[in-house]
UniProtKB/TrEMBL annotation:
Residues 3-225 form the RsdA/BaiN/AoA(So)-like Rossmann fold-like domain. NCBIfam families: aminoacetone oxidase family FAD-binding enzyme (TIGR00275). It comes from the Bacteria. This is HI0933 family flavoprotein.
Length: 235
C-alpha cells in the first residue's frame, strides 16, 4: 500500500508528489497520458508563466469570480513560496511586466524537466498510460483506485490533481469532478472563463493575429442589426 497516490501529472500533481516525497512518504503518481507536464510545457506561449509577484491582494483582485477563497491557501503557500520552490529546483526566474515570473531560459520544458528530476531524486514511482476509472473511498486510512484495465491500487491518501476541462488534448477532461463529488465535495456549475474568440471574419480564420500580445485595447461586438452588444476592454 502506498502512503500517497497522486492522480494527474500536471503542475499540481507533480508538485503534490514532490511535497509528499519530501515528507518521506511512499508515493505513486499515475497519469492517463504518455507524458507528464504536457499542459505545463505549452503554458505561457511555451515560456511558462510560473506565478505572479504582485501583492496577494492584487493577485486575488484579478481572479474571475470570488477570488477571496484563495486567502486560506495563500496563508500556507503563496506566490513567494512558489518562486522559492522553483529556484530551489535550480530554475532561475525573472520578473517581467505586471509581476509575471518566467524562467530565465524562456523555455517551459526546463520547468517540466526540473520537476521530473526532483521526482526521480525522491524515488517517486510513476505510471503513465494508466487512466483511472474510479476511486473507492473505503476507510479513513485506506482508499483504492481502479484503473481502466481493471487492476486496483491501494493508498492511505489520494490526491486528485486532474485539472479542469480547459485543454482536452492535454488530458484536462474533467475526470476529477465526479470523484470529488463522490468523496463528499460540492461541485458548482462549470463554465469557461478564459476562452478564444471565434469568428467567421477572414482575419480570424486566417490567424493573422495569432501570437500577438496587445495592451490597452477594446473590442466591440455588433449584433446583426449593427448595434453594439458587447464591449470588452484589456489593459
Amino acid at each position: 500500500m502506498y502512503d500517497v497516490i497522486v492522480i494527474g501529472g500536471g503542475p499540481a500533481g507533480l508538485m503534490a508528489a514532490i511535497a509528499a516525497g519530501e515528507k518521506k512518504a511512499n508515493v505513486l503518481l499515475v497519469d492517463k497520458g504518455n507524458k507528464l507536464g504536457r499542459k505545463l510545457a505549452i503554458s505561457g506561449g511555451g515560456r511558462c508563466n510560473v506565478t505572479n509577484r504582485r501583492p496577494i491582494e492584487e493577485v486575488i483582485r484579478h481572479i474571475p469570480g470570488n477570488g477571496r477563497f484563495l486567502y486560506s491557501a495563500f496563508s500556507i503557500f503563496n506566490n513567494e513560496d512558489i518562486i522559492t520552490f522553483f529556484e530551489q529546483l535550480g530554475v532561475q526566474l525573472k520578473e517581467e511586466d505586471h509581476g509575471r515570473m518566467f524562467p530565465v531560459s524562456d523555455n517551459a520544458q526546463s520547468v517540466v524537466n526540473a520537476l521530473l528530476r526532483r521526482l526521480n531524486e525522491l524515488k517517486v514511482e510513476i505510471r503513465t498510460n494508466s487512466p483511472v476509472k474510479d476511486i473507492l473511498f473505503e476507510t479513513d486510512h485506506k482508499h483504492t483506485i481502479v484503473l481502466a484495465d481493471g487492476s486496483t491500487i491501494d493508498g492511505r491518501a489520494i490526491v486528485i490533481a486532474t485539472g479542469g476541462k480547459s485543454v482536452p488534448h492535454t488530458g484536462s477532461t474533467g475526470d476529477g469532478y465526479p470523484w470529488a463529488k463522490k468523496a463528499g465535495h460540492t461541485i458548482t456549475e462549470l463554465y469557461p472563463t478564459e476562452v478564444p474568440v471565434t469568428s467567421d471574419e477572414p482575419f480570424i480564420q486566417e490567424k493573422r493575429l495569432q501570437g500577438l500580445s496587445l495592451k490597452d485595447i477594446a473590442l466591440s461586438v455588433l449584433n446583426p442589426k449593427g448595434k453594439k452588444s458587447l464591449l470588452i476592454k484589456w489593459t
